[in-house]
């Protein structure tokens, strides 16, 4: 349960009634025809945990509450919602890669360095026959960003939203999910944050089934999980 404490009395907190939104985008209107170039984008998923601003305003009679909310929280003016957390995911269907007749590395390397690392690891998984053929009729998923507003942390909000996303929204039968454990400044808050170690962040993601690819010390830690293990993890 999420609450807002925007009043002078601690006993007068505003309870938030939350919902999850999911938007998917890909620039291809039809099934893509792959040629010898790799200038095409993955499927992009945007997931948000939100609360209706109208419902918040109905719950309180306090003056200037909307201005107070704007000062402390993140309001999406377009949807008229308060954003608690959001996730950005890129998806690469294995069927598309097979039509390209090339490696994961060659596809993901066209995007950025982080995707390049993910692609290289995905090729290792196939070559070494790890996770019992996870890409068969599945996809490679890279969670680019997990952003929880600082005031809503400490309740496993991020990992709960990850599990909800793959269990109820994307719902692929097979695949691998990757993320890179590295602290990032929240886009939902204007306040600068003091970041903790990457190792501590990695332990947080281990709570929903992610495993470190390497035990070596690094500025960022690559983590992975089989899609089914993520959905079923308790």
Automatic annotation (TrEMBL):
InterPro entries: Acyl_CoA_acyltransferase (IPR016181), GNAT_dom (IPR000182). Pfam families: Acetyltransf_7. It comes from the Bacteria. GO terms for molecular function: acyltransferase activity, transferring groups other than amino-acyl groups. Residues 55-228 form the N-acetyltransferase domain. This is N-acetyltransferase domain-containing protein.
């Amino acid at each position: 349960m999420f609450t807002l404490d925007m009043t002078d009395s601690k006993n007068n907190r505003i309870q938030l009634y939350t919902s999850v939104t999911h938007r998917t985008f890909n620039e291809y209107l039809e099934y893509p025809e792959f040629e010898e170039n790799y200038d095409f984008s993955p499927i992009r998923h945007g997931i948000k945990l939100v609360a209706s601003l109208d419902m918040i305003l109905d719950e309180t009679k306090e003056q200037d509450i909307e201005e107070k909310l704007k000062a402390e929280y993140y309001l999406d003016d377009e949807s008229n919602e308060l954003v608690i957390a959001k996730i950005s995911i890129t998806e690469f269907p294995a069927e598309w890669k097979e039509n390209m007749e090339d490696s994961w590395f060659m596809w993901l390397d066209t995007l950025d360095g982080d995707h390049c690392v993910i692609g290289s690891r995905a090729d290792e998984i196939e070559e070494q026959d790890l996770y019992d053929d996870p890409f068969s009729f599945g996809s490679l998923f890279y969670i680019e960003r997990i952003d929880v507003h600082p005031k809503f942390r400490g309740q496993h909000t991020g990992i709960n939203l990850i599990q909800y996303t793959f269990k109820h929204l994307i719902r692929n039968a097979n695949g691998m999910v990757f993320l890179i454990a590295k602290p990032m400044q929240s886009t939902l808050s204007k306040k600068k944050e003091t970041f903790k170690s990457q190792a501590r962040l990695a332990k947080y993601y281990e709570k929903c089934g992610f495993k470190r690819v390497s035990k070596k010390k690094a500025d960022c830690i690559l983590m992975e999980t089989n899609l089914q293990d993520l959905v079923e993890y308790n």
